[in-house]
Write a structure and sequence with these properties.
Number of strands: 18
Helix content: 25-40%
Shape: globular
CATH architecture of the largest domain: 2-Layer Sandwich
CATH class of the largest domain: Alpha Beta
Number of domains: 4
Distance between the termini: 7 Å
Strand order of the largest sheet: 15-12-14-13-17-18-16
């Protein structure tokens, strides 16, 4: 990067907030994928005006800008694949307002998700979206990816809680969309356009969120099954009975094999699937609701059930789910984590397809996720030191995504597209649909400044040059 550009960045944010040091560039060169790309500079911003000025400068000198929060994404959405300026928003971390009368909150993009949840719950309020990364992922990143989580089966995903945004456009203008009201039909719904756009259409600098009253109580259950079919039939039966649990998490046989003996809850060899079911609401009704669920699922190859009666017992149940990810490395050292979605009734078909792919290519595939909405986290576990393994992974991923789409599903439920899934979009969307999306990008970002090289396998525009 030219010295004069660095000097102008320093004029905007100060010398302490601009770095071209190798260590800082490496720190901001990767996410949870296996990829790494060095930026030309790292800039830490603290105000909307700074963001705007930097984007205007980037347009002037034609340098890419890549907005970044905690960098915890799984699809390469924050990777500086073409160099440029990584704009770090984690210092914009203020909870500006929690309005208990109107059930809203206004926050900056660097606020950690779990911190907002804790602050809201102290006031008897509730922010439901709960990605697994909530203890370190930021709300700006959650909005950019439209994050989900276990509770979305009942409460919905991030987009269902975004009322309004302040956004710096790709040309550096500052716009505001939506507001504090639940109803707003003035013009196009730009709020929804920016949610899930992965930092390609604008940089979010303020977020107005919808809150709801905090549920009075919850009850957690763990159910073991002889087969994944029994677990899936149970999910369909529960939903069919007009019961919407807070969470419906599943673990398949391969996942259970990774954690067997590592939790306080025994998982015998004949346990081939687990459901973690949680309900919330009026404490006087929870016992009856839990009993009804257990009665409904009893015919479906249930081996054992465990109902938590204390917070400590609930914690033991959730520990079974939380120890999954750190346990996967015992299978193989390298993990490719994808999140496909199929209709919930098709979960057994998808699991069988994954087992067939695993056997065909002799590659371990471990699956768990949100059974209530059919969102499966597929973990292809390999050792990349083996010759030809990376090429084999590419073939395996192609078959996984193709199988999901054939079952009327999607190649991504909450991780986004980024760089890692761009080449698979045509499996799900026709050329005309992709072209329409690219025309929106080209119209809003004529110089392709914001996060170029993401979502689409080929840019509609020539990329900005750093």
């Amino acid at each position: 990067m030219k010295k004069e550009v660095v000097e102008r960045l320093i004029e905007i944010v100060g010398s302490d907030n601009v770095s071209t040091a190798t260590a800082d560039k490496i720190t901001h060169s990767y996410d949870a994928t296996q990829e790494q790309h060095l930026p030309d500079a790292v800039v830490y911003v603290s105000t909307t005006e700074q963001v705007s000025r930097i984007v205007k400068l980037a347009n002037e000198v034609k340098i890419p800008v890549l907005p970044r929060g905690a960098g915890s994404g799984f699809t390469g959405g924050t990777l500086p694949t073409r160099g440029g300026i990584v704009m770090v928003l984690t210092r914009m971390d203020k909870i500006l307002d929690i309005d208990s009368e109107n059930l809203t909150a206004e926050v900056e993009p660097g606020v950690v998700t779990a911190e907002l949840q804790r602050r809201a719950e102290k006031l008897g309020l509730f922010y439901p979206p709960d990605p697994a990364s909530k203890e370190f992922s930021t709300l700006g990143g959650n909005v950019a990816e439209c994050a989900g989580g276990p509770r979305c089966v009942k409460y919905g995903v991030t987009k269902d809680y975004i009322l309004g945004l302040e956004v710096v456009t790709p040309t550096g203008d500052i716009i505001r969309t939506g507001g504090k009201t639940l109803k707003n039909v003035v013009g196009y719904d730009l709020t929804k356009l920016f949610v899930g756009s992965e930092g390609t259409l604008g940089i979010i600098t303020k977020i107005t969120l919808k809150l709801i009253p905090k549920p009075a109580a919850k009850k957690t259950m763990l159910v073991q099954f002889e087969s994944i079919d029994g677990a899936a039939q149970s999910v369909s039966a529960i939903i069919g009975a007009k019961i919407i649990p807070t969470t419906l998490e599943f673990l398949d046989a391969a996942t259970i094999g990774c954690i067997r003996g590592k939790s306080d809850i025994p998982l015998p060899e004949n346990c081939q699937a687990v459901l973690i079911i949680e309900v919330d609401g009026d404490p006087e009704l929870l016992d009856a609701q839990a009993e009804r669920i257990l009665t409904i699922i009893e015919p479906f190859q249930v081996l054992d059930t465990r109902i938590a009666t204390t917070d400590e017992e609930s914690e033991k149940i959730w520990k079974v789910r939380r120890i999954v990810s750190p346990s996967l490395r015992q299978v193989n050292p390298d993990k490719f984590n994808e999140d496909i979605v199929v209709p919930r009734s098709k979960v057994p078909d998808m699991i069988r397809a994954l087992e067939a792919i695993s056997k065909k290519y002799n590659v371990p595939i471990v699956n768990f996720g949100h059974a209530g909405d059919g969102n499966i986290h597929v973990n292809v576990m390999v050792d990349l030191r083996e010759e030809g393994m990376r090429e084999k992974v590419e073939i395996v991923m192609d078959e996984i995504f193709r199988a999901a789409v054939e079952l009327k599903g999607s190649i991504s439920g909450e991780h986004g597209i980024g760089t890692s899934k761009a080449k698979y979009m045509s499996m799900e969307l026709n050329r005309e649909t992709i072209d329409y999306m690219q025309r929106i990008k080209a119209a809003l970002d004529p110089q392709n400044i914001l996060n170029p090289g993401k979502i689409f396998i080929e840019d509609a525009l020539q990329p900005a040059q750093s």
